[in-house]
Amino acid sequence: MSRQKEKQKLALQGGLKAVTQVEGRGRPKIGVEEFMSIAHRFGLSSQARKKIKAVLRGEEMDEGPFLANYYSGLKESKTQSFERLAREIFKVRYSIGVSSGTGALHAAFVAVGVGPGTEVICPAIGFFATAAAVVQSKGIPVFCDVDESLAMDPAKIETLITERTVALAPTHVMGSVCNMRAIMKVAHEHNLMVVEDCAQSCGGRYEGRYVGTFGDFGCFSISAYKTVGGGEGGLVLTNKKRLWERANQVIECGGLWRPNRFAPPRYKGELFCGTNYRMSELEAAVDVIQLRKMATAAKRFRQVKRRIVERLKTYREIIPQKLNDPDGEVGYFLRFYPQTVELGRKIARALSAEGIECVTRGKKAPPDWHLYSYMYPVTLKSGATQDNCPFDCPLYRRRGGKVNYARGDCPVADDLFDRMITVPLNQWLSARDCRNIAEGINKVLAAYCSQDACAAWWL
Q: Most CB within 10 Å of its CB: which of 97, 139, 216, 394?
C-alpha cells in the first residue's frame, strides 16, 4: 500500500495516526506574573518581590494552578480544607464556604423556605444585610425590638409571629451573643426555623457552644471587615442534610456539588434556579489560616475586656451593656449607656481627651444601616422592579400581609442606639494598656457620675 493510501486509512483500521506529537507548547495560564501581583497586594517590598520572582523563574509550573474549588488537581482544594476545618471546629455535619456573609444569609433563607408571602423576624439592631437577604429571598423582614444586650429580645418575639412567619434571624451583635436558649424555645414552640447571623461575632460562644450551631443554619462573614477573615468571604453551617443540599443549590446553581452534576432530580424539590456564591480558592487559602486563629483571637479579646471591666467602678447614671454570656462573647467592644444623651456627649468628649477612643451618636447623628429605621432599601419598601416585589406581592396581601416601617416601632433600640458609648478594644492591648484605659474610664465617669456600689455591675 502506498504511503498516501496509508495516510488516508483510518487509524481505527490500522492506518497511520494523523497526530503523533504536538510541537506547540504554551505558557501557564496563571503563572509568575499573577503570583507577583499577589505578593504586591500583600505589601511586600520591591526588594523582597525581586527575590521571590527569581525563585519562581526557576520553578517548573507546567500549566499553572487551577484556582477553583472543583477540578483543582489537589487531593483537597483550599475551599474543601476550609470547609473541613469549619466542621471540625464547630462540630457540625455540613459546611459551605461562600463568597460573602450576605450570600450565606440569602442561601440559608431560601433553604428554610423564605419566599413570596412569608415573613422573617429580624433584630432592630444588626447590619442591614440580614433584612436585605430576606427581601432578596422575596420575604418580608419584621423587626423585633432589642433588650440591653442590643440583641433580639426573646420576650418580644411572640407578639410578632403570624401565620406568615417562617423563621427567626437572631443576630449576634458586634462581638456579643444572643440569648439563644430563650430564642430557640420560642422557635420550637411555634415550629419556626432559625437562621443565626454570626457575622459580627465569629468565635463567640453561648453556654459553651459556638454561636452558629444552635439554629437550623449558622451564617458567617469571614472577611477583612470582621475579626476573622482576610478579604471577602463567608461560611454556612448546618446539621441537616436536606437544608445543606438546598443551600448548595442556591450557592451553586451549576450543580457541581451534586454526585452527578447533570442528573435529573434525585427527589422532588432538589433542583431549582440559584446563583453563584462559591468561595474562591485564593480567598479560601487565606481564610483556612484565619479560621485556625479564631479561638485564640477571641480569647485575647475576652481577656483584654475582662482586664478592663474588672477594674471599673459602678455608677448610678451608667448601665453597662447586658452580656448574655460574659465568658462567651468575643468582646471587641466595651459598651455602656449613660442616663441621657447629653451626659453621653460629655463622657465621650472627656474620654477622647484622655486618649481613649470612643464614639456616641446622639439624636442628630447621620443614618446608620445598623439600626432598623435607617435601612432605607427595606423601610422605604422599594422593590427592584415596578411591581415592587416583595412588598406589594399579591401572595403576601392574600395572606393578610401588610407591613409599614417607622422610627419608634422599636423604641428600646432607638433609645439605646442613640445613648450608648462604644469603646473599641484591641486584642493586642497589654496588661498595662488595659489598666490605663480602666483608670481613664473611672476618672471620667467619676467626674460626671455618682459612684454607687449598688449600681449595675459591668459583667
A: 97
